[in-house]
Amino acid sequence: MEHPTFQAYRLHAGAAGAPPQGRFDTLRVDDLSAGDTLIKVAYAGLNYKDALAQAGRGGIVREYPRIGGIDLSGTVLHSADPALTPGQEVVVHGYGIGVDCDGGYAEYARVRHDWVLPLPAGIGLRDAAVLGAAGYTAALSLHWMEHCGLRPDQGEVLVTGATGGVAGIAIDILSQRGYRVCAMSGKPEAEGYLRSLGAHDVIAPPDLSAGIKPLLSARWAGVIDSVGGELLAHALASLRPDGVAAAFGNAGGAELPTSVIPFILRGVKLLGINANSPMPLRRQVWNKLAAEYRPARLDRIARVIAPSDLPQALAAMLERGSIGRAVARFS
């Protein structure tokens, strides 16, 4: 099948010691990474990992050139898998797209068929991209927390890094499920936004200059944490007996200066959330996103941008200059 040339935002290797250079290239389908399923991209999300890749931080992308974008939604054009039919609306996230192979920042994407998830009924292409890897991570966190016994009647749930994409969706989902949510953010100007997502309380991050105590006053029944580091250690020390924390980020550092005391004296649980899950779990969680975990306030979280705005929008994410979840519209 013949396809016209199209535009893609690609990262190219910089000079020795310099960050990669991003630019829009004119490509053909044959220029894309190998795959047996071709998708016409509708939307692609902007994620913190994409911003790090553009800045050349963390060694995320190792081979260039590379089309960025770790998640996308779109329609199937053709596939080696007969279960994926032309025109079918799908979402793809993880599996190394935008990192080890070309991702969503293009008008077309070519991927393996077993990476493609048909959208559950009731989720459209825009909302699928607004959810994307971020919404899946939020829902997966709550999925495992509730598996470990978390219930709304047990007390408040703390969401850290609250203005981020994952956190905003988590606040929305939690509030729809009947949880009392406390949002933690270092952006006081965002309080109104966070309350509009369903947060009952908004607090600033604590002063941790004096160090972390093994145990603090027990407040939280659960914690959804995107920060890591000392802040996660502080939250663990503040969990109620049998409380549960889900951790998926390290914006505040990869070290965890805690002790076994919260675990053995209060029985708290710390769950590591890896969003690069096997497909059966993805289907289960996406089905929840279409039903009992369905967010109600995605329009407040979402911001749709033009592909030409990608470089500036990704750079703003690293400067803490963005709130919510941005998606680039390609078709």
From TrEMBL:
Q: What is this protein called?
A: Acryloyl-CoA reductase
Keyword annotations for this protein, in alphabetical order, are:
Oxidoreductase
Q: Where is the Enoyl reductase (ER) domain?
A: 22-328
**Is Secreted given among the entry's keywords?**
no
EC numbers listed for it are 1.3.1.95
User: Which GO terms fall under molecular function for this chain's record?
Assistant: acryloyl-CoA reductase (NADH) activity; acryloyl-CoA reductase (NADPH) activity
* Family matches, as SUPFAM superfamilies: GroES-like, NAD(P)-binding Rossmann-fold domains
